[in-house]
Amino acid sequence: MTSTDRTEIIDTCTRMMWFVDTRDWTAFPTVFADSVTLDYTSIWGGEPWMQTPTEITAMWSNLFAGLDATQHLLGNHLVTVDGDSATYTASFRAMHGQQDRGTWTLYGTYRITLTRTGGTWLIDGVYMNWNWEEGDRQIILEAAGSTTP
């Protein structure tokens, strides 16, 4: 692994979260491969699923439109590279807020897999491992238009 690979991998994962927090839904899909595995089963149950960047953008932009603000922070970056495949692991804090309701904050780790395509690192898997939460989970459920996951 070169230091350039490491930097580009961390940057790609950081940009994914930055685009969510700034609601840059035009740039958001540019960090993804053609097909992405999403796994949020540690908090919501169910099974991992696959989506295209267009489908992820539609789902996440709709979800986050129901919130006044979010802040997704990644830290303790660990990167491994095997040829054109990489794994990025990081601790995260994800705050979701509504002015009149307060916040729901989630803590845990992300494992994000990437593939080098045409010289660019693109995300092909997002695996969230929830550790604990603070605040009102109903904030995110109501933003999603549901009262249950």
Overall mean pLDDT: 93
- List the domain count as a whole number: 1
Counting DSSP H or I runs of 4 or more residues, the number of helices is 4
Radius of gyration computed on alpha carbons:
15 Å
Q: Termini separation (Å)?
A: 39 Å
List the secondary-structure elements in sequence, H or E.
HEHEHEEEEH
Please summarize the sheet with the most strands. Answer: 6 strands, mixed
Secondary-structure map:
Elements: H1 3-21, E1 32-39, H2 41-44, E2 49-51, H3 53-65, E3 69-82, E4 85-98, E5 102-117, E6 120-135, H4 138-143
Parallel strand pairs: 1-6
Antiparallel strand pairs: 1-2, 3-4, 4-5, 5-6
Keywords:
4 helices; 149 residues; alpha+beta; 28% helix; six-stranded mixed beta sheet
Provide structural commentary.
- The structure is a single chain.
- With 149 residues, this protein is an alpha+beta fold.
- It has a single domain, classed as Nuclear Transport Factor 2, Chain: A, CATH 3.10.450.50.
- Helices cover 28% and strands 48% of the residues.
- The chain contains four helices and six strands.
- The protein has a six-stranded mixed β-sheet with strand order 2-1-6-5-4-3.
- Strand 3 (69-82) and strand 4 (85-98) form a beta hairpin.
- The termini are far apart.
- The mean pLDDT is 93.
